[in-house]
């Protein structure tokens, strides 16, 4: 039986599914693996099921002598794994794309609504005892109907957000993507992120992380946005220059932001926490039991197929 290391406690149904096929060891810590643990895992296990912040960078693969043949990542984003370095050592990397789409799009909608309608700010005011009663101009936010959402990255998650915005909230959709997408709703592809930023009332970031998108969004993009516009990020924190975002929120260059991810996660700058116009969630994108079960089952299926000698359904390149 192949030996598999699961890097964090996962739902019991997922562990049981893995145990049906493999000799499974579950690491009990909820914290990321340390470099020594990752090197030992590569040396001692046939496969590893890592998660976010188990940073398999190039240095971890140095030296060789690996027993490991597959890293079956739990999650769609795999920017914490140096896929080229893994491949150079003959290690396949897989992810869990379909399983995360709807839940992540739902968190984007949560952030859009909370930011545009000032929900976090309102709740803090009420809980802080500062509510003096309803009046017609109290805490006016941005109404979404008829407004334009600009989606940067029109992959599975971007498309799920577009559907929710268009069919659920009557919003117009514009997007930026490397290629034109054949979508089942009206949407205009913009020639640049800046052009999208200038037109959108809500900008949503849904691109993959990694070196190609590092600091894709910086001061120029925020300056292109309209002062009443909101910025939402459910992708990866380092796609955004967080210092530039804080400056834009502070100075009123943009109206608000809704974030589920951070540049140096889990560290969130005190300057961001201090801002009333920032809605801050602790990376809740896929945080629902059935979603985590579906992600785990897909990771196990990738392992099962790989060790059966078949192509795993979600190999990444
Ligand atoms: C996951 C995510 O919870 O799937 C992803 O890429 O960002 C999250 O929603 C996390 O990555 C699990 O490893």
From TrEMBL:
Q: Name one Pfam family in it.
A: 2-Hacid_dh
Write down the top EC class of this protein: oxidoreductase
Assigned keywords, A-Z = Oxidoreductase
Asked if the record carries the keyword Transmembrane, the reply is: no
The record's section on CDD domains has: GDH
EC code(s) of this entry = 1.1.1.-
Residues annotated as domain D-isomer specific 2-hydroxyacid dehydrogenase catalytic: 4-316
GO MF annotations, alphabetized: oxidoreductase activity
Limits of the D-isomer specific 2-hydroxyacid dehydrogenase NAD-binding domain: 109-285
Task: Describe the family membership recorded for this protein in Swiss-Prot or TrEMBL.
Answer: Belongs to the D-isomer specific 2-hydroxyacid dehydrogenase family.
Q: What is this protein called?
A: 2-hydroxyacid dehydrogenase
């Amino acid at each position: 039986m192949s030996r598999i290391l699961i890097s964090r406690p996962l739902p019991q149904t997922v562990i049981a599914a893995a145990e049906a096929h493999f000799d499974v060891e579950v690491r009990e810590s909820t914290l990321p693996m340390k470099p020594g643990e990752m090197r030992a895992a590569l040396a001692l296990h046939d496969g590893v099921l890592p998660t976010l912040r188990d940073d398999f960078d190039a240095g971890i693969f140095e030296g060789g002598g690996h027993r490991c043949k597959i890293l079956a990542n739990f999650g769609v984003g795999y920017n914490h794994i140096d896929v080229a370095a893994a491949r150079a050592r003959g290690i396949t990397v897989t992810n869990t794309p379909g399983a995360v789409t709807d839940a992540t799009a739902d968190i984007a909608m949560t952030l859009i609504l909370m930011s545009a309608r000032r929900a976090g700010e309102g709740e803090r005011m009420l809980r802080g005892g500062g509510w003096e009663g309803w009046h017609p101009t109290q805490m006016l936010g941005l109404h979404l109907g008829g407004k334009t959402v600009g989606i940067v990255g029109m992959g599975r998650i971007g498309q799920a957000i577009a559907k929710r915005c268009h069919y659920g909230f009557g919003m117009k959709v514009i997007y930026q993507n490397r290629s034109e997408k054949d979508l089942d709703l009206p949407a205009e592809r913009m020639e640049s992120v800046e052009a999208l930023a200038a037109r959108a009332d809500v900008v949503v970031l849904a691109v993959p992380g990694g070196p190609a998108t590092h600091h894709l969004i910086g001061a120029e993009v925020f300056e292109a946005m309209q002062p009443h516009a909101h910025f939402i990020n459910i992708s990866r924190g380092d796609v955004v220059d967080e210092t530039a975002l804080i400056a834009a929120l502070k100075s009123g260059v943009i109206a608000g932001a809704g974030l589920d991810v951070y540049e140096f996660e889990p560290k969130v700058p005190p300057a961001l926490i201090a801002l009333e116009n920032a809605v801050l969630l602790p990376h809740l994108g896929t945080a629902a039991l059935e979603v985590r079960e579906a992600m785990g089952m897909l990771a196990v299926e990738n392992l099962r197929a790989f060790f059966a000698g078949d192509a795993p359904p979600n190999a990444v390149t």
